[in-house]
Specification:
The chain is an all-alpha fold and about 60 residues long. About 35% of the residues lie in helices and about 0% in strands. The protein has one domain. The protein contains 2 helices and no strands.
């Protein structure tokens, strides 16, 4: 299901996505529990510096 939703009236930036993921991770569980998998495509905002470290720290 949907754990977090954010709508912008402009294009997403890497910083927007980083903030979104930070809020989303508060609602996620450690693997392999339910709601523990984050799926992303190859969008440019998904390559922001610090994203991998943010996710792995949780």
């Amino acid at each position: 299901g949907v754990l977090h939703l954010d709508i912008l009236t402009r294009s997403w930036t890497g910083e927007d996505f980083l903030r979104y993921v930070d809020l989303l991770l508060d609602r996620m569980n450690p693997f392999p529990q339910k709601n523990s998998v984050l799926v992303m495509d190859n969008g440019s905002s998904h390559h922001v510096e610090g994203l991998r470290e943010l996710v792995e720290a949780r």
